[in-house]
């Protein structure tokens, strides 16, 4: 049988690059960029080009595994495994209540378009609020808390294509392949940046290192780590002091501007320059450039979100957008309102704060922490903050979590406070992982369910729908028929729901057939009911496409629903005072810990996925500790030497790597590498890296509402091994 070429898209990460897969006799021969795609233009990254090796990797899990009493594992059919898991879940529910059953849906779970709606449907049917995702590990302020406290602008902010200026804070799209609207799009990002430059778009990048984006920016503010809130407060102070703000917009659509202005008086250019280790003139230039617009957007990446004061930073980001009037106005064309959701007006008006988004089930750890309404691709969705999940497992009493289903994640490497995370995972009565490989967390699991890989399943670009700059969508059918005993992540929840006699419903509106398993298409149809472009049309088309849909024009305000964005909500004064006090970005930074550790992304991995593939391993099998060469020289350390990095909470080995792009006094490392915290894998640091979360403490500097721990900009020391 001759080979055939099939159009599909990669799901290694969030970029969803279109590809052509060459298949013969149900075997994947190769993948290549889809050069016909009208949005991506043939772009793919190095990770996605490794799909053939990932598909047939010798360590791939092709059936389910069960841990035996002696710690060994035995193959078990998925049907039998699911039967046993359901029986154990029923026992736990009956004895401890539904709250004792939790799921953690990691970053990879977002790559399966049906996972989260079905997982949430399962939790709602079960009556368990213990639904956790990776989004609350690194960005809860951005996707939930900020809008709940301040309100939001209904028509949205200008996207990259419509921006004259983009303020990018701690984001490196050229490597991460992820950004929020207004920053460089993740879809062929280098080309998007080039085209933006041609249009005259100015880029202001705030980053402690000269990242790939920073190197191509018009103004790079190489800030001292942890001082992002101080810088933003200072820029807002300048804009208000020099009357560069949009006076009319602020008068009509914001509240408490004068109170904010008065409280920011302390953040003078001289003070901010001293605190941030920046030139005063650069701070002034950045504020003036951003305010001048006339169209612009400020946005953050995971860097500042994982560092000090993320709630405050997000509020200040929304504030600087608001006071400059950097929003779509009535009559403006909204670049893309999505094609996979029902048509809805974009109102050019402010919607007031919504405290209900921060109300709901409380954590047993603290009344200040509890359910957060997160704005997802599938609409607003309540979830519990992941930062407190380990405590919820370890804290005895009513509601203690006894069972955890881990989907598309590796919490042993991802959760803050690795020592506690390790203890918590081992404390569970039942740990279930669905994974394609025996990752560090799966090594601890009672059951591991073999997962289908992306080319073995249908998918739809639901996650990225509103991130595109054009009304684009792609439905890919399965390229390969799975030949082994593997299932999809959403199927795990459906199968357990059936065995537990649950009545599951997507969005509480669209019941799932719990007798006969629905097809993936059926599930996706329920998720996209009433979409601007019918799913049938997208399904029928071969490859991705920019659809000819009516323009979305921002509408005049509705007096019945219009409100004001609150620039100075309750608690902000306290947060600003804390930022002003936190001169060293870490209250623990003392003589014993003179360096600041910051997080980063790496081009050849997607968190803990990638190093097992040969072409990616050839680019590096560890997460080096990048340090300025002058600091290395002071330490008497050379490139590739093993060093010890210590914090007040723990220590890790690391492979030193000099980089002039790093500020002095800073260590830059990627997270989600390494192994267990018991020291058993430390001698393999060159092969598997090290886990930076061993250096953090879950309850250290925990943020209100989300419980976020400080996972970046922690105080550390670096010494010879």
Give the structure's gist in a few sentences.
The protein has 721 residues and is an alpha/beta fold. The protein is 29% helix and 19% strand.
What does this molecule look like?
The chain has 721 residues and is of the alpha/beta class. The protein folds into four domains: 4-55, Phosphorylase Kinase, domain 1, CATH 3.30.200; 64-137 and 371-534, 3-Layer(aba) Sandwich (Rossmann fold); 157-327, Dimethylsulfoxide Reductase, domain 2 (3-Layer(aba) Sandwich), CATH 3.40.228.10; 586-720, Beta Barrel (Barwin-like endoglucanases), CATH 2.40.40. A seven-stranded mixed sheet has the order 5-4-20-19-18-6-7. A six-stranded mixed beta barrel has the order 29-33-30-32-31-34. Helix 2 packs across helix 19. The termini are far apart.
What is the averaged pLDDT score? 94
CATH C-level of the largest domain: Alpha Beta
The strands making up the biggest β-sheet line up spatially as: 5-4-20-19-18-6-7
Question: Largest sheet, if any?
Answer: 7 strands, mixed
| Radius of gyration, in angstroms, nearest whole number | 25 Å
How does CATH name the architecture of the largest domain?
Answer: 3-Layer(aba) Sandwich
The CATH topology of the largest domain comes to Rossmann fold
Structural class: alpha/beta
Strand tally? 34
Domains, number: 4
Measured between the Cα atoms of the first and last residue, the distance is 58 Å
The amount of helix comes to: 25-40%
Basic shape: globular
Put simply, the count of helices is: 25
pLDDT < 50 runs, ≥5 residues: none
Strand content: 15-25%
């Amino acid at each position: 049988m001759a080979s055939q070429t099939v159009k599909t898209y990669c799901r290694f990460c969030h970029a969803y690059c279109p590809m052509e897969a060459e298949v013969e006799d149900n075997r994947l021969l190769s993948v290549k960029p889809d050069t016909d795609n009208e949005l991506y233009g043939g772009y793919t990254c190095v990770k996605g080009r490794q799909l053939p090796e990932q598909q047939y990797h010798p360590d791939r899990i092709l059936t389910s595994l069960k841990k035996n009493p002696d710690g060994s594992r035995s193959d078990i059919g998925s049907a039998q495994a699911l039967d046993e898991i359901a029986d154990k879940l029923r026992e736990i529910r009956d004895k401890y209540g539904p709250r004792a059953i939790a799921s953690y849906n990691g970053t990879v779970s977002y790559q399966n378009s049906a996972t989260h709606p079905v997982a949430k449907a399962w939790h709602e049917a079960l009556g368990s609020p213990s639904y956790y995702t990776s989004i609350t590990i690194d960005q809860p302020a951005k996707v939930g808390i900020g809008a709940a406290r301040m309100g939001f602008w209904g028509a949205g902010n200008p996207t990259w294509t419509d921006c004259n200026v983009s303020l990018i804070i701690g984001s490196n799209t050229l490597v991460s392949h992820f950004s929020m609207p207004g920053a460089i799009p993740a879809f062929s990002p280098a080309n998007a940046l080039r085209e933006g430059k041609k249009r005259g778009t100015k880029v202001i990048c705030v980053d402690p290192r000269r990242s790939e984006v920073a190197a191509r920016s018009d103004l790079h503010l190489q800030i001292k780590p942890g001082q992002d809130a101080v810088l933003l407060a200072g820029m807002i102070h300048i804009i208000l002091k020099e009357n560069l703000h949009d006076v009319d917009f602020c008068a009509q659509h914001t509240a408490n501007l004068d109170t904010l202005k008065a409280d920011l008086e302390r953040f003078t250019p001289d003070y901010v320059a001293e605190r941030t280790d920046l030139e005063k003139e650069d701070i002034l230039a950045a504020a003036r450039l951003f305010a001048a617009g006339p169209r612009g957007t400020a946005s953050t990446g995971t860097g500042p979100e994982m560092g000090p004061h993320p709630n405050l930073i997000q509020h200040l980001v929304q504030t600087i957008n608001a006071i400059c009037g950097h929003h779509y106005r009535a009559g403006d064309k909204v670049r893309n309102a999505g094609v996979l959701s029902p048509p809805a007006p974009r109102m050019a008006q402010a919607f007031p704060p919504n405290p209900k988004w921060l109300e709901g089930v409380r954590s047993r750890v603290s009344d200040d922490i509890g359910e957060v309404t997160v704005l997802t691709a599938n609409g607003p969705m309540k979830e519990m903050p992941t930062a407190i999940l380990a405590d919820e497992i370890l804290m005895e009493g009513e509601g203690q979590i006894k069972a955890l289903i881990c989907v598309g994640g590796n919490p042993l490497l991802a959760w803050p406070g690795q020592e506690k995370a390790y203890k918590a995972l081992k404390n569970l009565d039942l740990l279930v992982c669905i994974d394609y490989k025996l990752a560090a967390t799966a090594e601890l699991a009672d059951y591991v369910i073999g997962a289908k890989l992306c080319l073995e399943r249908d998918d739809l670009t639901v996650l990225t729908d509103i991130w595109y700059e054009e009304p684009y969508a792609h439905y890919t059918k399965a390229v390969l028929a799975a030949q082994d005993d593997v299932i999809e992540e959403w199927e795990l929840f459906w199968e357990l729901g059936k065995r537990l006699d649950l009545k599951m419903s997507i969005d509480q509106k669209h019941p799932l057939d719990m007798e006969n398993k629905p097809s993936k298409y059926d599930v996706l149809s329920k998720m996209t009911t009433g979409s601007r472009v019918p799913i049938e049309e997208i399904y029928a088309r071969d490859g991705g496409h920019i659809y000819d849909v009516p323009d979305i024009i921002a509408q005049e305000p509705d007096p019945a629903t219009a409100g004001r964005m609150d620039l100075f909500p309750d608690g902000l004064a306290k947060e600003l005072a804390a930022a002003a006090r936190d001169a060293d970005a870490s209250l623990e930074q003392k003589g014993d810990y003179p360096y600041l550790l910051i997080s980063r992304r790496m081009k050849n991995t997607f968190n803990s996925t990638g190093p097992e593939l040969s072409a990616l391993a050839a680019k590096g099998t560890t997460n080096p500790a990048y340090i300025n060469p002058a600091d290395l020289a002071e330490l008497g350390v050379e490139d590739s030497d093993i060093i010890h990095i210590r914090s007040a909470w723990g220590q890790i080995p690391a492979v030193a790597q000099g980089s002039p792009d790093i500020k002095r006094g800073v260590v830059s490392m990627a997270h989600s590498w390494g192994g267990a915290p018991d020291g058993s894998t430390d001698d393999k640091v060159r092969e598997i890296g090290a886990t930076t979360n061993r250096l953090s403490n879950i309850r250290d500097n925990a943020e209100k509402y989300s419980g976020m721990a400080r996972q970046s900009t922690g105080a550390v020391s670096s010494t010879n091994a």
